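Q: Start with the shorter request: fold the first protein.
A: Done. Sequence, then structure:
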Amino acid sequence: MTTIPDAREQFLQIAQTIQRAFPREARLIRNLVGEALKRRQCTPRVRRQTAKPMSPDLAEQLKAAAEANPKKPLRDVGVANRVDGARVHETLYGKRR
């Protein structure tokens, strides 16, 4: 198995080998190696958004909203209260209290 640094070196050797016969292609290979096969800086991860903790008040709000709008999808009920639709389902059907 070839690693990216090894592949980078192999491409540069190929570019050097074909330099005289195909200068345009060799330059293209070197440009691609310079852009595509370089080590990028590690970027910090974005903090995940956390849902509101389930409280009795929030559970009541979800139940009231779902009962007031029976045709509205649970996902939409959850979005209005910053809760996932699955948590709305769990609240309505007894898994969360």
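Q: Next, the second protein, separately.
A: Sequence, then structure:
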Amino acid sequence: MRSAWLAVVVAFVTACGPRVVDPACVTYIACQAAFDDAAGLDPVDTSVYAEDGDCWAGDPTAADRCIGECVANTDALRQAAADADLTLDACALEPAP
């Protein structure tokens, strides 16, 4: 019986605990917003990668996929910014202090 209660507590804490956004996605979200603003584009919806997004709902495979997408999207935005001669601090490899 004790192990059943432990399983319930672990499931509750896992499901209701704080969601942690991977730093790669924090960078992507900021980079995308900066690029959209600088290029005069409508904002891209990056909510799936945000704190309440589906990426962090508990499935490690989905989280890993999302991290890969964030890295790839940020790299693509860096290239697009360079091609458009835009300097975007939010997209820097090392964030400014």
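Q: Describe the second briefly.
A: Residues 60-83 form the longest helix (24 residues). The mean pLDDT is 84.
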